[in-house]
């Protein structure tokens, strides 16, 4: 099988490529150049797409004896991921750029080009498991729960899953991957994991957004509509935030208040008690199914709203193209723009972007 190995420059993708070679596949390595911004190219950047990462990927490919290329996807990355990130914040939503990158770049743009060039599959270092069944290919959680990345892969559809290869899915731990990399003589064996948003290398998301969204003073109100403070830019706040509110009017009960809602049209931030963060229902219409779609309009599932959150039992219903999920227990601090991934045990059913939420605590409370 001809396999295109996406090599980020990290240990996971290097070992995944090595295992694809060991499996007898005809493997070609490729590193995606996703940004031309100087900040993502300098030493010390905390993302996953620096010039140093490209060099690490090349060294790994040389060690494995496979061809290696760098593909410039920076324009599409800007259009599909960065511009979307800014637009979502302007709309008062909290986006997940890693989900968009997987959806639009790594398993859309990359896979499209790979198929055009005659490759059968794209191999990545994600920790997730693929299972072939009579109903088609399914996406499942990885063996190592601590490293499981099925959540961020929940955006993949049946056609994309048919061309995916995740060699690390059954690996019991990251320590095993690092030991294997060292044994293979890969220089990335002990390279630290990437973190933060790759196109904001200094980690200052608030400052980065201020330059692009702008700064405009607006009111901070409580659930009754009374103004309790002011802010210098709604984009700097996220649902569930407690620190940095600088409210001039204390709550009647003296308890701390948290951000409950962002209203971009009026540039308003809504705050309230921690109890009001409890979410009784979430819904969204940007839906995709990871393999076969549910057999019925109503079904039981587990819902996960963050990459490292615990799944919560729930009931889901498809109504006029919208998925409405009611968790068995309230979810905590859900923001529109987040991704909800639905599971059946270890199997990923699908995902949707959260468009609206309903608090478990009435406004009168």
Automatic annotation (TrEMBL):
Record GO terms (molecular function): ATP binding; tRNA binding; tRNA-uridine 2-sulfurtransferase activity
Domain tRNA-specific 2-thiouridylase MnmA-like C-terminal: start-end pairs: 281-350
NCBIfam families in alphabetical order: PRK00143.1, trmU
Keyword annotations of the record: ATP-binding, Cytoplasm, Disulfide bond, Nucleotide-binding, RNA-binding, Transferase, tRNA processing, tRNA-binding
TM region positions: none
Keyword Kinase attached: no
Spans annotated as Interaction with tRNA: 147-149
Site feature (Interaction with tRNA) residues: 126, 338
Protein name: tRNA-specific 2-thiouridylase MnmA
GO CC term (a single one): cytoplasm
Family: Belongs to the MnmA/TRMU family.
Catalytic-site annotation from UniProt: 101, 198
């Amino acid at each position: 099988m001809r396999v295109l190995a996406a090599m980020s420059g990290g240990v996971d993708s290097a070992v995944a490529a090595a295992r694809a070679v060991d499996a007898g596949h005809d493997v070609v390595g490729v590193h995606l150049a996703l940004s031309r911004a100087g900040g993502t190219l300098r030493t010390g950047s905390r993302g996953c797409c620096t010039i140093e990462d490209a060099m690490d990927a090349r060294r790994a490919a040389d060690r494995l004896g496979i061809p290696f290329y760098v593909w410039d996807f920076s324009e599409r990355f800007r259009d599909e991921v960065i511009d979307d990130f800014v637009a979502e914040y302007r709309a008062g939503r909290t986006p997940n750029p890693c989900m968009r990158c997987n959806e639009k770049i790594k398993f859309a743009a990359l896979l499209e080009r790979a198929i055009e060039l005659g490759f059968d599959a794209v191999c990545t270092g994600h920790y997730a498991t693929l299972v072939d069944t009579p109903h088609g290919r399914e996406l499942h959680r990885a063996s190592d729960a601590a490293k499981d990345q099925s959540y961020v892969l929940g955006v993949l559809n049946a056609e994309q899953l048919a061309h995916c290869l995740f060699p690390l899915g059954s690996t019991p731990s990251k320590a095993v991957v690092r030991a294997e990399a060292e044994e293979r003589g890969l220089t990335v064996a002990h390279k630290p994991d990437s973190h933060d948003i790759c196109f904001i290398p200094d980690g200052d998301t608030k400052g980065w957004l201020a330059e692009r969204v702008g700064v405009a003073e607006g009111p901070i109100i409580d659930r009754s509509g009374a103004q309790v403070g002011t802010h210098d830019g709604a984009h700097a706040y996220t649902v569930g935030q407690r620190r940095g509110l600088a409210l001039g009017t204390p709550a009647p009960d003296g308890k701390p208040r948290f951000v409950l809602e962002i209203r971009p049209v009026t540039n308003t931030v809504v705050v309230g008690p921690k109890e009001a963060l409890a979410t009784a229902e979430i819904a969204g219409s940007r839906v995709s199914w990871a393999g076969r779609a549910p057999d019925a309009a109503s079904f039981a599932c587990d819902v996960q709203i963050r990459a490292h959150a615990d799944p919560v039992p729930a009931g889901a219903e498809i109504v006029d193209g919208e998925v409405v999920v009611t968790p068995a227990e309230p979810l905590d601090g859900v923001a529109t723009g987040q991704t909800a991934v639905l599971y059946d045990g270890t199997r990923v059913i699908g995902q949707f972007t959260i468009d609206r939420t309903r608090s478990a605590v009435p406004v009168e409370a």
